[in-house]
Amino acid sequence: MFGDTLVIAGGTAWKDGVKQWLRDVQIYDARADQWRQGPALPQPLAYGPFTQVDGKLEIYGGSGDGAVSRRVWTLDTSRMHWRIEGRTPAPLLLGRAVRLGGRVFLFGGCPDVADLTGCSDAVWMREDDGAWKRVARLPAGPVALPAVAALHGRVFLFGGCSMPRPGELINHAQSWAFNPRDFTWSRLRDLPSARRGHTASSAADRVFLFGGYTASGFTGEVLSYDPGRDAYTAESPMPVPMTSIEFFPYHGAFWGAGGEDRMRARSARTFSATIPAREQ
Description:
The chain has strands spanning 5-9, 12-15, 18-21, 25-29, 34-37, 50-53, 56-64, 67-76, 81-87, 96-100, 103-107, 122-127, 133-137, 147-151, 154-165, 168-179, 184-187, 199-203, 206-210, 213-214, 217-218, 222-226, 231-235, 246-250, 253-257, 270-274. By secondary structure, it is mostly beta strands.
């Protein structure tokens, strides 16, 4: 979210049972409640982690119709122009990225979105204009599709999934806090149920978790995590169970669009929800 503008770049869609990798950039004006087209990505791209800083969207690799990219693409939202700003240290499909000031942290990542046996447990860090350094490992081993958000100088990681053997996909409930000062992890209270493909956003001194895929299938559950109490609160659920919809705080509400609402399908919905008050 850049001011009043929500940017959706790339991704995948399904048409007539065929998966498509997209170059499309769609821009939503929250004040006008209108969508418009933005500058297309230079290549089809999906499943790469992203961050934002100073009006720029940063995408760290991804895949496009079978090809894995390690390019770091940056969109300057003031000029609406894409440029390459380096390469990722490894394939990062289904991994997560967090920017803390002048440092970017990359968590996990995979070379293949279908076979997760090759996923990494690496935590990488790069300072602006510097080289990537491996600074830690994920505490529960290689994990894909966790929910990750920064709050009060720490990074919070919830759930995700792993594939210890081909075809054996396991959802996780473990949650962790990462200290970027000494690169150490602290165990948090587990999620109420194991899940993957959920997303996280920070607001009002809490981390909010949206949707995901559990043992029962797609969920619309919304949780808030309070680090001070190490506790989860069930908030009003999303209208539609789904995964992979990213939400961003804007004027006292969360705004988000897209996501996966059923197998072999994608959603075109746009949602907003008031950020709930903190329990006393």
